[in-house]
Design brief:
Length: 365
């Protein structure tokens, strides 16, 4: 079960924007509730936010009683669902969240306010910690997470002056040909000084191609006021990838799966064919385990040291104990004991338990 786990230390708040309709997904499931390696995209975003130990977590949703709000109530009860209502852009969404948080907790947000998105499942908590650390060390009014894109289409461009200082973020739809050629792009994630954020949000306009309140304009306002606007580079471009359609969702699954497999192989797990092996974020593999080709490990599955799973297995919410073997089988909510063998062509259902036969465990002398 997912959980929130906020604390009294860390930033004043993390605001996660999750009110987008996600029409390009062509799905009845809200975009941010699609799963990537066993966790919803919103769950990934909240897990990254939790690593900051913020005092408050707010999620901007589109409906008060919709699926996203219900998901938060069930799995992240300490995260406040704040309804945007009419969806008038990212700046409007953050303004609604800031006004709601200050109405509940006092006249202002004292400290750092981080803004992230519910459709960026690859963002690491360490990247957010680096963003906040650099922001607070510099004493900036706001710090943006930026990256270099080989194809910047669709992204806001970072515009700098001749001395390399930040001057503005120009959205793709509003960019001139010269600005569109810029490859330094805005991730849309920021660390703000809460004491100046609320005032800047009240000054946003809708003078743009979409007639929306862009959060990016807040950075231009703060820069124009003579306040420091900083940037922090995100070295891994995959981390800031937003998911807007099924193809991008599949790419996110592949990227995260490769990341997980690489991490497990680094601990001493053998993955015979990473291209055909899939693991969820809740899976635990002990050093010495061997995972064969065409194998899916889902949910809260654990595989013990020296166990061999695969080829051709689907294992969901199971315990595969040390030195056990599972070949070409489906196992669901089952336990395979130490040294036991399952398959080929077995189907273990919920509650099943397989142990080593007595004769096998204690052979005759």
């Amino acid at each position: 079960m997912e959980s929130s786990g906020v604390s009294l230390n860390g930033p004043a708040a993390v605001i996660v924007l999750a009110a987008g309709e996600g029409s390009r997904m062509k799905s009845s499931t809200p975009k941010v509730l699609h799963e990537v390696c066993g966790k919803t995209m919103l769950g990934h975003a909240l897990a990254a936010a939790r690593e900051l130990a913020p005092r408050q977590v707010a999620v901007v949703v589109g409906e008060p009683d919709g699926p996203v709000a219900r998901y938060l109530a069930d799995y992240w009860p300490d995260a406040r669902a704040i309804v945007q209502g009419p969806r008038r852009g990212t700046g409007h969404a953050v303004r609604v969240a800031v006004e709601a948080l200050t109405a509940l907790d006092g006249p202002g947000l004292d400290g750092t306010v981080v803004v992230t998105y519910g459709d960026t499942p690859l963002l690491r908590g360490q990247t957010l910690r680096d963003l906040v650390g650099a922001h607070e060390a510099a004493g900036a009014a706001v710090t943006a997470l930026v990256a270099r894109a080989s194809d910047p289409t669709g992204y806001g461009r970072i515009v700098r002056d001749g001395a390399g200082r930040f001057t503005a973020i120009v959205e793709h739809a509003d960019a001139s040909p010269a600005q569109a050629a810029i490859t330094e792009i805005n991730s849309g994630m920021y660390a703000f000084d809460g004491s100046v954020l609320a005032a800047a949000l009240k000054r946003l306009t809708t003078d743009n191609a979409k007639n929306e309140e862009y959060l990016t304009e807040a950075l231009t306002i703060l820069s124009g006021d003579g306040l420091d606007v900083g940037t922090v580079w995100c070295a891994d471009f995959d981390e800031i990838l937003g998911v807007n359609d099924q193809a991008q969702l599949a790419r996110a699954r592949r990227v995260l799966n490769d990341r997980l497999l690489g991490s497990w192989m680094g601990t001493g797990v053998t993955i015979l064919d990473p291209a055909s092996t899939w693991v969820d974020v809740g899976v635990v593999l002990e050093p010495g385990a061997q995972i064969g080709p065409a194998t899916q490990l889902q949910g809260d599955t654990t595989v013990g040291a020296g166990a061999r799973v695969g080829p051709g297995c689907l294992v969901r919410d199971c315990v595969i104990a040390a030195e056990a073997t599972v070949i070409q089988s489906v196992c669901e909510c089952a336990v395979v004991g130490p040294g036991a063998t399952v398959g080929p062509y077995a189907h273990l259902t919920a509650g099943a338990r397989v142990e080593v036969a007595a004769a096998e465990a204690e052979p005759d002398a």
